[in-house]
## 1
Amino acid sequence: MDIQMFNWHAKSLIREILTKKLELCAKLNHKVFSCKVLNGTSEYDLSVNSDMTISCNCQDFDGAGKIGDFSLNSLEEIISSQKAEKFRKILSDGKLPIPNCSRCSELEIVPPYKYQSEEKRIVPTKNLMVENTICCACSCLACARPLVMKQRKKLALTLEDIEKIAIEIKKHNIQSISYFNLGDPFISKNILEELKIIRKYNPDINIGSSTNGLLLDSEEKFEAACLMNSLVVSIDGINTKMVRKYQRNQNFETSFGHMCELIKYRDKQNKMNTNHLSKLKVGWNYILFSWNDKPEYIKKAMSLCKANNIDSLNLWHTKSPFWATSWRWYVDPFYKGIRKGNNSQYLPIYFTK
Ligand code: SF4
Ligand code: SF4
């Protein structure tokens, strides 16, 4: 079995156990569940997939979280769809509708309430994820790509799809877009055109994205990135041998080089066009594992950020895959020093204002 699918099955088992535990805890405490996406208060997860289906969460590798199809229905109709109603009913009965709920930040444990199917449903307006493509060259260990590739009827959104999404975002006054999900947005040859369409309808919206940097490789793509507010480049280590233990097709020199080129491009454009400054901030995303977390590696990454004007180094602690978890994160004095009591799994270190 492929290592990605092995990880997926291991995670599925953990989710099943967690589901039973959460449902039992809720029952013993006379509580039930609610979901921030389905009750309209979510700040992140609702996702338009590359085939225009809509998933309630951004980790929907097996498609269990699909609640509608944006090519057939509006966001209001999807958030009130039969599938979404079924999820709400199950949650109000103290059960979890899909295994992903057990590890989802959108899940809330709440006092019992009366489920009402005729209630007006609200579309979350804080953020929409837009997966312009499902393709990715990186093949990370914990990314169940074989599964997600089977799920999508289309590998990329068309420009017509993007326009439809942009109009709907404007209609609902959605405040931010996460322009990525289970693929690398910069694999798209149309990314500049896509971003221009979104900006045409939503000039002031906050757009953030994430890439592995391998195909952030042309002036056109740099121009697309400069239409965003933030972009993180995921490189999990300080040399190719190190990054390939997780990002199996990653190349440190290529991706790091592209990130530095982008920053030079942004700074040059901002010097030339003082009336139209790009707001883009570029961060280096670095997931910590047992093989790339030594303090000297992180200090080296910090000095590379300073030397190349990278706006931040974003350290992430992960439990996936479970056997590669960074234990230094918990016990090493270096991490205790930089975390300063912060218990979050995310630690950004800023180098620019
Ligand atoms: S996985 Fe569950 S908790 Fe998360 S968004 Fe979907 S229904 Fe809500
Ligand atoms: S870079 Fe992201 S989308 Fe690509 S394989 Fe890795 S985790 Fe999956």
## 2
Amino acid sequence: MVAVVRPRTAAAAAGLAVGDRIMGINAQPLRDAIDFQFYGGDDCLELSVEREGRRRALRLVRRPGADLGVELEAPRPAEIATCANKCVFCFIHQLPRGMRRSLYVKDDDFRLSFLHGNYITLSDLDEATKQFDQNLAEIVSQNAKIKSYVTKLESRASEEEEQATPGASDLPPASQLVDEIEQFMRQQRPE
Ligand code: SF4
């Protein structure tokens, strides 16, 4: 949903308005603000917009590198992915009662991290991984030069993996350390 249209920008010239719901760009359906940034990177955009229940097409052209002139609404609390972890030391659970409700949301949403720099735990990234893979596959399929570059990178990575010496590090895996710390804290917790 469009929250702001800046005057004297490509969005204003195309007739985009506050409250419009941008459903697609250049025939690509949009799932969220990340898709909007991804597909909105071109200078020539065919927008599919829903306004007052009706679909309409808007053509938006901007100078290379110029501001598009659009800000989208922030995701609503119900749309934010929340943390699935159960840390015994969770800082959200330690907050005093009676503060504003948004402070108690254990947000763990890659979109907020990407757009605003919020911390995420990286423990629940299936959806983000799928989206990233899909975006990457589209880019690769559309550009032969990038395709050959990615193929070279992948073959170099698998060669390096084969040459790596197993057991080169004395450190245990990070996941083992985290398990041990959590177990220790559980033991310290008063019943
Ligand atoms: S990862 Fe953060 S928000 Fe989630 S349970 Fe642990 S401390 Fe709480």
## 3
Amino acid sequence: MKIIKISSDLSNTSSNYFSQARVFIDEAFGRGTLDRQTCDDAIHQWLIIDFDDDGNDVVVGYCSAEINQEGLLGILKTSVVHPSFRKSGIGDLTVKHRIKWLQEQNVQTIKSYAWFVDGVVPAQKMLMNNGFEPWGDIRGWWSGDHNWDYPCSICGEKCKCVARIFQYKD
Ligand SMILES: CC(C)(COP(=O)(O)OP(=O)(O)OC[C@H]1O[C@@H](n2cnc3c(N)ncnc32)[C@H](O)[C@@H]1OP(=O)(O)O)[C@@H](O)C(=O)NCCC(=O)NCCS
């Protein structure tokens, strides 16, 4: 398995990787999620690549992070694992990888805004297993990210999803 960082000019990432990733990322969060994150210079992105039984490259996961507040605040933004590869430690790997990368960028604080969906926070365990503590919940956290063109996968154009805020305690 390898983790590749998508370069800002996209030169190191094949369109085949993007096509594979787009399907499961947009299915999880809503149409256009990958393309919007890719267009945002503040967002850093990684793809997790594995091999299928025939030895072909398969994109099994995606994650992103953002640095705000003049470099002081690092945010674990989006993590998605391809549905066929879940519950095998890839999500955990994406958390560890981004904590290390953000620490190398010398951020002082690391937070994550995790999705609360169908009564659970899917990312909660992988965050808490890696030193994050819950801080509080905010309803409609992503409302500004969604509209008719970019609907939320749950609420459509008016997103009311709840974010559970986590902070990293090292
Ligand atoms: C959340 C997600 C990234 C987890 O990826 P994963 O590769 O399956 O996670 P891991 O195998 O590394 O599991 C990490 C821990 O989380 C738990 N976990 C995994 N999926 C979970 C889920 N859907 N609900 C609750 N806990 C879950 C695992 O049991 C494991 O805990 P443990 O080691 O203490 O038993 C994946 O389910 C996913 O892509 N979901 C859809 C998108 C999403 O909700 N992303 C998070 C938004 S912030």
